Automatic annotation (TrEMBL):
Keyword line: ATP-binding, Nucleotide-binding
Protein name (Swiss-Prot/TrEMBL): ABC transporter ATP-binding protein
Record InterPro entries: AAA+_ATPase, ABC_transporter-like_ATP-bd, P-loop_NTPase
Domain ABC transporter: 4-242
Length: 252
């Protein structure tokens, strides 16, 4: 059974905005799966439903066999959600932040002290920062890129069944994005952590994702391996494939 199953999700927000119009996809264990599409396509809404933070109007999601609407507490033990902009915790140092979030996540799963310590060491390693810098610098004083790296580091280091990363590299410069992509790709493959991420950047998902879903206006217009989609739309790259898929979907 796939690790993540999204089946017929519909979300109508109060006020009548139809954010999701019936989307379905599934993600296998260890896969890096990308949702791509423009602003307002419904990526964050999908993530918030999977992460148990939002109830769908209809449809169903299971993570590792657990229905997220019926058993949200069980589901939360299996997943980590890193929103695009994590606020708060500004006054904690990087190390305090990592210790806090790792402790909260792992103790809910009944981890031992030594497992928590191991995850913290792993997270420190994944940040690429020295422990000294993490000990000295408050979250509010990191650059946006470093903050994202700290957040992604803990999300991967606790080895969840599913890591949901909302636009992990948005707003980062070329070097910081490259480095963060490398960390995600390498870690997911090495530890078989299933990753679902969103991005506006087609080149990024082409590099990072095993499979992608192309979204527009609350619908998935196509889904497949990046190379397969490029070929299917007779395109030079995923960006061009996306544009052709959108044009085709519009004329149907
Ligand atoms: N709380 C809300 N109340 C009403 N409408 C909302 C709410 N949150 C999102 N929407 C609307 O739902 C639609 C989908 O938004 P969503 O944030 O899921 O898209 P997105 O693909 O993540 O976009 P972005 O790339 O800009 O983050 C948009 O039209 C948005 O305006």
């Amino acid at each position: 059974m796939p690790l993540l199953v999204v089946d017929g999700l519909v979300k109508v927000y109060p006020g009548g905005v139809k954010a999701l119009r019936g989307i379905s996809f599934s993600v296998e264990e260890g896969e890096v799966f990308g949702l791509v599409g423009p602003n307002g396509a419904g990526k964050t809404t999908t993530f918030r439903i999977i992460a148990t933070l939002l109830k769908p109007t209809s449809g169903r999601v299971t993570v590792d066999g657990v229905d997220v609407a019926q058993e949200p507490y069980e589901a939360r033990k299996k997943l980590v959600y890193v929103p695009e902009d994590v606020g708060g915790y500004r006054r904690l140092t990087g190390l305090e932040y990592l210790s806090f979030v790792i402790e909260v996540f792992m103790s809910a799963r009944g981890a031992t002290r030594s497992e928590v310590r191991e995850a913290l060491e792993e997270a420190v390693r994944l940040t690429g920062l020295s422990e000294e810098k993490l000990r000295r610098t408050r979250m509010q004083d990191y650059s946006k890129g470093m903050k994202r790296r700290v957040q992604v580091a803990w999300a991967l280091a606790v080895k969840p069944r599913l890591a949901i990363l909302d636009e992990p590299t948005s707003g980062l410069d070329v070097e910081a994005s490259y480095e963060l992509r490398r960390v995600i790709a390498e870690y997911a493959r090495r530890h078989r952590v299933t990753v679902v991420l969103s991005s506006h950047n087609m080149l990024e998902v082409e590099y990072l994702c095993d499979r992608v879903a192309l979204m527009k206006d609350g619908r998935i217009i196509d889904i497949g391996f990046p190379g397969e989609l490029v070929e299917k739309y007779n395109a030079r790259n995923l960006e061009e494939a996306y544009m052709r898929a959108v044009a085709g979907a519009g004329s149907r």
